[in-house]
Specification:
CzcE family metal-binding protein; 110 residues; Immunoglobulin-like; three-stranded mixed β-sheet; four-stranded mixed β-sheet; 2 helices; alpha/beta
């Protein structure tokens, strides 16, 4: 009876750990995709309504605009993978799907 209870607790703990790891953040709470940025004069500006996809260099800061709203993001998280705009945009920003493709970090070789 006791071993059955231990197995149940282990399964529940494992499921909770797996769901926590499924979040799009590192253990330190930082996003896999980068971080919100202050709007900068150097930032690339993208109108989401006209873009179908977007290629960015690792470390680029981009200001996204849609229907009078805007936000800026620096892509300095994981490289060489697409980022769905919906995962980084503020709530209610846009309903349009847009993938941002982040190039390889020049400091990594693999």
């Amino acid at each position: 009876m006791r071993s059955t209870r231990l197995i149940q607790v282990a399964i529940i703990f494992g499921m909770a750990s797996a769901s926590a790891m499924a979040a799009d953040t590192f253990a330190n709470g930082q996003s896999f995709y980068g971080q919100p940025a202050q709007q900068a004069a150097k930032a690339r500006v993208v109108d989401v309504s006209t873009a179908r996809h977007l290629n960015v260099a690792y470390g680029d800061t981009v200001t996204f605009r849609s229907e009078g709203k805007e936000f800026s993001w620096t892509f300095n998280g994981l490289d060489r993978r697409p980022v769905d705009l919906a995962k980084i945009a503020p709530a209610g920003f846009t309903g349009k799907s847009l993938n941002v493709y982040v190039a390889q970090n020049p400091l990594t070789r693999n």
